Amino acid sequence: MTTTPQAVRRASPRTRRAATPPDPARSLLPDAEPVRLLDPSGTPLPTRTDYPEPPAEVLRELYRRMVLGRRFDTQATALTKQGRLAVYPSSRGQEACQVAAVLAVRDTDWVFPTYRESMALVARGIDPVEVLTLLRGDWHCGYNPAAVRTAPQCTPLATQCVHAAGLAHGEAYQGRDTVALAFIGDGATSEGDFHEGINFAAVFKAPVVYFVQNNRYAISVPLSRQTAAPSLAYKGVGYGVPSEQVDGNDPVAVLAVLTRAVEHARAGKGPFLVEAHTYRMEPHTNADDASRYRDGAEVDAWRDRDPVTRLETYLRARGVLDDAAVAEVAEQAEAYAADLRTRMNEQPTVDPLSLFDHVYAEPTPQLVEQREQVRAELAAARDEEGDA
Ligand SMILES: Cc1ncc(C[n+]2csc(CCOP(=O)(O)OP(=O)(O)O)c2C)c(N)n1
After folding, report:
1. pLDDT bracket for residue 12 (50, 70, 90)
2. Is residue 5's pLDDT more than 50?
3. Which protein residue has the closest C-alpha to ligand 1 atom 3?
4. pTM, whole model, 2 decimals?
5. How confident is the model over 180-219, as pLDDT tens digits?
6. Phi, psi dihedrals of residue 45, rounded to the nearest 5°
7. How far apart are CA 165 and CA 261, in angstroms?
8. Residues with CB under 6 A from ligand 1
9. Catalytic position from the list 48, 136, 149, 293
10. Mean pLDDT for all residues in the chain
11. Of 101, 133, 325, 355, which has the maximum CB count within 10 A?
């Protein structure tokens, strides 16, 4: 007797279940909805008992660093208008992501930032003047990456994903439990380096957390023109990497999800991918006009989901933040910005000839020639100034 398709469909439920192997992809997929622990008004949501809330003192520190971070960001934008900074990519609106991410890792872990992460770096405790050195037009990143376990801010999109995989693999290979946290934007997840980095990390179980800040735009390219994936977090499954989505304007949820992702990586279970849904409130940089590609009503809608206000409302309601504490943090933020202004207004002494240092261990003949050309031009300019 032959078995017809109809007969297979009629088979008992027990037989059918036994014939279906478990789907290994299921455990890798993110939840369909982003994790959210506070609603946009700051009211706690009782829906996610699987993500324990971080302790109150950690949340107070998260709030403090977010307020300082926002003030830093506003000051940096002002410095571009005063000619003290060549360019600045603001992360206003992304404070929950920027600050929670660095609170989720240890000082001994490594952070791999992009140009968008100046706020994250100051939240990590790096001197703000050092953080802005590159954007001021100097040739180096301003800080010693090895000393602060933070790579230089990457402008070439997604290259940091490969660096993070290599560093994390190297650290694990040497028996250390260092985790690498790689920031990346939504647009950059279309770059080859993102895919190569996450694939390498998955194959070698390198302890990397890939943290995608989906701020809806890659300069003027909206997410809808960037990907057909249901969400960017789904990009993990093809590489065997578990992932999660989170409301990126909910500071409590971002910290809870990233804390778990970091624990996963540190426990030797390999990389983890987190996608935070957030919004870039400012233009791509001060050199961009965002009104040419997005609508003011959209920006206003996101203003209502402000992460700083959301956390402040929640902490006040919980009784762990009051007027005096809020005023004290605001005062700290003003002092921080004033110090940054003063130091950024000091004329930096830069030696144009240092541009040629450290390009190669042995300078090429072309570099030697170009260096000589610049040296002669500088000397001539000095002579002219002397004559005048
Ligand atoms: C390899 C590479 N291609 C193109 C660019 C030019 N570029 C700079 S920023 C940017 C958009 C990136 O958007 P996204 O990854 O979403 O990050 P966001 O700027 O929104 O933080 C582009 C295309 C670049 N820096 N590097």
Report:
1. very low
2. no
3. 157
4. 0.92
5. 999 999 999 999 999 999 999 999 999 999 999 999 999 9
6. -105, 130
7. 15
8. 116, 155-157, 185-188, 215, 217-219, 280, 284
9. 293
10. 93
11. 101
Q: Which pair of structure tokens corresponds to residue 180?
A: 């690498």
Q: What are phi and psi of 192, to 5 degrees?
A: -55, -40
pLDDT computed for residue 46 by the predictor: 85
Residue of 92, 284, 305, 310 marked catalytic: 284
Asked if 234 is an active-site residue, the reply is no
User: Are 184 and 160 in contact, with CB atoms under 8 Å apart?
Assistant: yes
Q: Ligand 1 centroid to 21 CA: how many Å?
A: 41
Q: Are 118 and 78 in contact (CB under 8 A)?
A: no
Which residue out of 162, 219, 278, 302 has the highest number of ligand 1 atoms within 8 Å of its CB and is therefore the one to mutate? 219
CA distance to 35, 131, 200, 206, per residue, from 30 (Å): 10, 34, 21, 20
- Report the alpha-carbon distance of residue 272 to residue 210 in Å, rounded: 6
Residue ranges of E strands in the chain: 110-112, 180-185, 208-214, 217-218, 221-222, 243-247, 272-277
- Closest protein CA for atom 20 of ligand 1: 218
